[in-house]
Amino acid sequence: MNAHSLAQRAYSQTGRTTKTARSTEYELIAHVTHRIKAAAEAGPLAYPKLVEALSDNQRIWTFLAADVSDKENALPQDLRARIFYLAEFVQQHTGKVLMKKARITPLLEINAAVLRGLGARRSRK
Asked: Residue 72: helix, strand or coil by DSSP?
């Protein structure tokens, strides 16, 4: 192995370990959104995978709600309130989806909107 490939490997490993909280949030939400969509499109046999993906989505939104509830959170109060409201909606709507009383589309749309916001903020930094 030559010096160039050793340096490239070292720097690429460092790049992976220096993720920001925003990029981590983006990746988590994008991943779970993809899983929800894929399971929903796969049909009734993929219901267990859908339940698992929805549960993971709820965990993410629970974390986001707790994060924006923290007095030390630096986001503007209005944005924090909107995120908290969305977290409550996601929890309630997910229950309806699991009982087959609501469609999954609003959950996907919410996650997509958050991803657009996180993506826009990432590109400005």
From this structure: coil
Quick check: 55 and 49 in contact, CB under 8 A? Answer: no
pLDDT in tens, 39-97: 999 999 999 999 999 999 999 999 999 999 999 999 999 999 999 999 999 999 999 99
Q: Could you tell me the residue ranges of all domains in the chain?
A: 20-124
Name 115's Cβ contacts closer than 8 Å, sequence gap at least 6: 26, 29, 30, 33
Neighbours of 25 (CB within 10 A): 19
Burial 37-74 (b: 16+ CB within 10 A, else e): bebbeeeeeeeeebeebbeebbebbeebbebbeeeeee
Predicted TM-score (pTM) of this structure: 0.81
